[in-house]
Amino acid sequence: MLDQRFAQWFKGKSFTTDFASAHLQTWADIFEPIREQPLSILEIGSWEGRSAIFFLEFFVRSRLTCVDTFEGGDSERVRDPVYSQSLSDLERRFDLNLSDYGSRYEKMKMRSLPALDKLVESGRLFDLIYIDGSHQRDDVLMDSIISWRVLAHGGHIIWDDYLYDMDRPSQAPKQAIDTFLSLNRGDFTLVHKGSQIIIRRLPSSELWDGALTLRLARTPRNFIKFLRGHPIRFTPHLEGQ
Hints:
241 residues, Rossmann fold, seven-stranded mixed beta sheet, two-stranded antiparallel ribbon, 21% strand
């Protein structure tokens, strides 16, 4: 049963689905110690805004950036009649549901990759990132790697759908999340593992460490090459030059 505290936050809102409520108590338990902090939160995949409302209500001094195309696009779920029907007026429902929060949130209506690239270029950093956009392995890995670039030291990442069941298990989010965790072993602590994964980036960790930085071309082709173990094109760059 949904905690009445949470249920009150969603009262009078317009929803056709509920993908978030099962996780709310876990989030509340884990993040209670930082609830009062002025957090900057990034959400990749907002859907109707249920998780966004939780973040804005629970973290009372937070500001939220929501990234979504509001067009669906997940071929696995679009085949579900309930999901496909929810696409009708999706953005309008999101806007109405978030209308009470004014300047505390911003909407980036675009695909996650160009949105993340824009955030990197602008030097934005976030204390909490929720990755729940595409459910395809390659997309999740791309979102994860670039999200790491905008995650503040000591910040958290939540991945949804770690145990998401697909027709092709090799393309499921779990493969991407496990790969990312393996690549960054030693730079984070595992906070929660279940249907979702939650990690906390160690305050002292550095993604690009040392004088030599590899500037990867951020293209889907390079990520596919990476997954398949093929050489990735990069340009060496010395810091300060």
